[in-house]
Structures are given as C-alpha cells and as structure tokens.
Amino acid sequence: MSDETLSRPKGQDFEASLDRSDKTVASFEHNQKGLMDHIQKALHGNPTLVPVIVLALSVAVFGVIAGGKFFSAFNLTLIMQQVSIIGLLAAAQSLIVLTAGIDLSVAAIMVLMSVIMGNTAISLGVPTFFALLIGFAGGTAAGFLNGLMVTRLKLPPFIVTLGTWNIFYALNLWLSGAQSIRSQDIDASAAALKFFGEAFKLGSARVTYGSILMIVVFFALWYLLNKTAWGRHVYAIGDDKEAAELAGIRTDRTLVQVYMLAGFICAIAAWSSVGRIGSISPQAFYEGNLQSITAVVIGGISLFGGRGSILGALFGALIVGVFQSGLKLAGVDVLWQVFAVGWLIILAVSIDQWIRKVSA
Amino acid sequence: MMTQEPILKARGLVKRYGKVTALNNADFDLYPGEILAVIGDNGAGKSSLIKAISGAVVPDEGEITLEGKRIQFQSPLEARDAGIETVYQTLALSPALSITDNMFVGRELRKPGFMGKYFRMLDNKAMEAFAREKLNELGLMTIQNINQAVETLSGGQRQGVAVARAAAFGSKVIILDEPTAALGVKESRKVLELIQDVRSRGIPIVLISHNMPHVFEVADRIHVHRLGRRLCTINPKDYTMSDAVAFMTGAAEPPAEAAAA
Description:
Chain A: InterPro entries: ABC_transp_permease (IPR001851). Chain A is mainly alpha-helical. Chain A is about 70% helix and about 0% strand. Chain A has a single domain, classed as ABC transporter involved in vitamin B12 uptake, BtuC, CATH 1.10.3470. In chain B, helix 6 runs parallel beside helix 7.
C-alpha cells in the first residue's frame, strides 16, 4: 500500500505551476509601518501599558496643577486608602470580565457580607473569627449561585447578576433592618472587624492595612491568572468558550470557580470595608458595582473577555483615585470629577477596540 | 485486503435528534497507519458519525472499540484522554493566546519541585521547548515567535498549529474535519503535506472533506456515507471521482464487494 502511495505524483495537475509561483512573502505593508502601527502592536502585546501611561500622566499633570500637596506622602497613601475597597471589588470584577461576563452584584455581595459579619459577631455574639468565616463562606456561596445560573440555566451574566444584585440588596436591608451598626458597638464587641482600617506610620505617610490587603490580593490573583493552568483556562474561556471546551477545558466548572472566587474576594472586601468606613451600613457602596466596572475598563481589560491584565484594574482604580484627589486639591467642583471619569471610560474602551484590530 | 484488525471500529451506531435519525445503524473501520477519507452529501450524517467517535455526542445505540477495547465517551475530553484527537473545522484555538498556550491547553506542564507542586506554577520554558520541537518536526517553523498570539497567524499556519497540537501528544487516531475548506491553493498544499507527514509517523487519520481532488490524492481508502450509514468503502485507485460522487449522491449503486467491506 505505502509503495504505491509514495509513487503517486505529488499534488494535483492544476497545481503544477505552483513550483514556479512567486515564493516571496507579501511584503507591501511592512515597509510602510508607521509609528502608530508600532504603538498598536506594542499595546496588543501588553495592554496594561495604557493604564500605566495614563496613571503616570495624570500623576504628573495633577502634581503640576495641585502642587506639593498632591505629591505629599500623606496624600498618595490617602489615595491608596480611598481606592482600597473599590480596588478589591475591581479585582473580583476583573475575574468575571476576563471570562467575557459582567458582575453587577459585587458590591451587593460585599455589603450583604459585611452586614452578616457584623450581625453574627455583634447581635448574636458569635466570636469574630467565626463571624468572618461565615461571611467568607457566604460570599463564596453567593458567587456560586451566580456561577450556577450562568452555567446551568445558560443565562447571560448581565441578567443573572442584575437579578442577584436586587436579591442581595433586599436581603441586606432585611437582615440589617435598614439600620447601621455603630462604630462604638463594633469596637466594644468585635474590634477585629475593623482591623483593615488600622494603619502604620511610614515617615509622614499613614499606610492602612486595607491598602496593603488590596495590593496583596491583586498580586495573588496576578500569579493565579498568569502562572497557573487555571489562569490560562480563564483567559481561554473568555477568548472563545466553544474553542476552549473543544480543546478540553471543563469550561462550566472553571466558570463556576471564577464566580466563587469573585464572591470570596467580595467577602474579603466586606471585612476591609468595615475598617474603611468605621461602621457597617446597609446603604454603603451602592455605586460600587459601576465603580468597579469603571476601574476594570479604564484598566484596559476588554469587556469582550480574554484580554487584559488584572493589574490593569489596580491601575484603573488608582487612576480614578488620582483624578478625584487631584481635581479636589485643585479646587474643582466634584461634578467635573464625574465628568472626567466619564470621558476616561469612553477613551479606554475606544483604545481597546483599536488594539484588537492589530494585524501581524 | 486488510488482514489487520481495525484500530478504531464502530458497529450499528444510531443517533436520533427528535424525529430526525442522523445515524442509522452506521458502521466504521479505521486501520492502523492509513488515511481514511469520509465523504458524503450534506446531511448524510458525516458530522454525527465523527462526533460519536470523538465523544462530542453520545450515540443512542451501537458500540465503538478502540484497539479492541470497548469505549464509551461522555465528552471530547474523554476521547482525547483515550488517544483520539480531533481537529475541528473551527480549529478550537484561542485567538488571543500564544501558540504554546494553545498547544498545551488542558494539559499544561507544571514546574518540577516545590513551586509546581504547592504553587502550581507553570513550566513555560519546558512547554515552549516542546512546542518548538513539535512544530519543527512537522516543518512548521516558518513561524518566528512561538509566543505570538494565534490571531496574528495566517489560516494555513493556524491549521498547522491545530494539527501539530493533535499530533504532539502521543495520540492513536487523529480526526481532521474539513482541514482545507478555508484555505487557498498554496496553504492547502502545505496542509496536505502535513497530513501525509503525520501518517508517515504511523498515526492513522480520519479525513472529512468535500474536496474530491484532495480526498483522492491522500486517502488510502474512502468511506462513503449516505442516509445515515456507511454505503461502501472504496479504494481511490479503483474508482474515479465521478464514481465516488455518484455513490454518495445515490446516482449509482455501489459495487457489491465494496459494500460488503
């Protein structure tokens, strides 16, 4: 059999002329590559470059406008402290967005878990350690619920989390009786809940443990997403779920894990938020969902999934913080801060669209 | 003609979708080291047959054996673990991931020792070296950068990466679904050479194609599928392309000895 196969002429008759065909690789475009092409290609390879540049520029510009006050160690650590909660929510949001989803319920999960932690520790008198564990388990379970509905009921993540946002918010009002837990009451029986609001001095700077926590969470997630197989799978699912499934990834299982991890991070954020605002309020962070999406988008993570770095979301959160702080120190009305952030979002998404059109 | 046992064999496969019977008592045989082309008109049940073999659908009835052992796949993952690799028409590559990442999706290598065991760190160097070696073996190293995203490759190069992925991991059978359908003349030629290259390594190939010249060029045997079952198996040296088209469209009755095979 094989002898006959080998003696068969190679190729079809009509392909005989291929031997004489032009063998040079098409080269017309390569000669004219301009600066913009190089930039586009560089950004395609490293999408976090955009938020890094924007962050550096905005720090420089506000440094000039607002002067020394902006650059003081005190102010820079204050910015870190101010973005620490939205930063954590953005970390959770990034995971979902990388899978081409969106999670409108992150802030609702966080507030619900802070209420649960506070109620079990203070009203029920459960030791704080166990109250925290209940909160972490609750956050993970909330994420599990989201993930289950996305994978089993095949509903779009937008709809699922729009639903659970309302559900968690209502539960939170019910459990808390729409009442805040006062700072003194937390201090009296569960001071550990406020741990992440405490700080250490570094020269004139006041660094809260909450800021450190945010950075640690981001680097842990960076490691997970970039250095482990699980992280590759998250990217592959966001890129093309069908392809990932056919290539042998258990996409539904991974997706559920992603939602659970996001819920768990929201519970960590819940703990940190108690220290940040000093009390437990069912009305807090009502805009947290949208702020986390803002940070993710400005951070260069594609809403279409599979592209961008988790660290981009950290830079995105910091950019928003720098804008707010800088404009405030420059004496600009708060409405113009919102105005500026709005344009940043649109700019960031247009840059993402442009990067995705890169050709080899 | 064939004295060996088939490496992959199916008997009496039935698959119904509601009132539609996609597979109606279909048989299938693939012998070691051969290229078997599967041809059939649209709706003849080729895809369902291939899906049943590659684990993408579970047949309602019938049995499949691989190397004489009965197999029942619930998912493509199980088929792959058993050594049946499928290169889908869509290629199932993740466009934004690198060539290396795509080759190792679902079977990544971890670093040896502490970092790999407890921190599950990937061994990127080892994976890159392996990917480069495999692409080299198949003569695909016109690609400059093993870390470039798959979306920056040409259609033929992508097909090459997908075939290399299927051939790289000690597979027993490779199924290629319409590998040249989206390619130009030159790129098709490269892929056909690649297919013969893979066969010369002793891996049998199932080739699903509508392209008769390509089928007649590379196939050792041709499985003609019609109305949900195997109509006949023919030797491309004994029949012409128009014979094959006549059999698969029902314009001519297959010869008795071919139908029996």
